[in-house]
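Protein in question kept in full:
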Amino acid sequence: MKEYSNGEIVVCWNPEKCMHARECVNGLPKVFNNAQNPWINIEAATSEEIIKVIDRCPSGALTYRKADKPEQSSIRIKVMKNGPLLVEGNCILVDRDGKEDAVNGPFALCRCGGSKKKPFCDGSHIRIGFDDSKSEQT
């Protein structure tokens, strides 16, 4: 996890959660540019502009918090149509061996079964054409 701060907000980057939807790069390329190092230039836009783009990150690889506010403590899980489960808030995901995989949301959990980064989503639902309306009903 890497953090970048401009004094107003702290942007957190967790590459393990990324499903490469490119909302950040397409939404604000002057801030999120993977051709430069570091790839996040938090000084290149206003905090409000950065927050709007980070709010579109479907996997939770990019998050932010106000520099002067504590982190949110509630948990929310959202089912994305034909996509992953989005887990928001502070929680702990424990794998089958008891190892903590993620201690802070948001993150995206695979629903389609095609991810190579299980239990996390890697965007495979798009490639395989996952359609949750065709789920078998018992």
User: Anything to note?
Assistant: The first strand starts at residue 2 and ends at 5. The mean pLDDT is 87. The two ends are 41 Å apart (CA to CA). Strands lie at 2-5, 9-13, 62-66, 76-79, 85-88, 93-94, 100-102, 107-109.
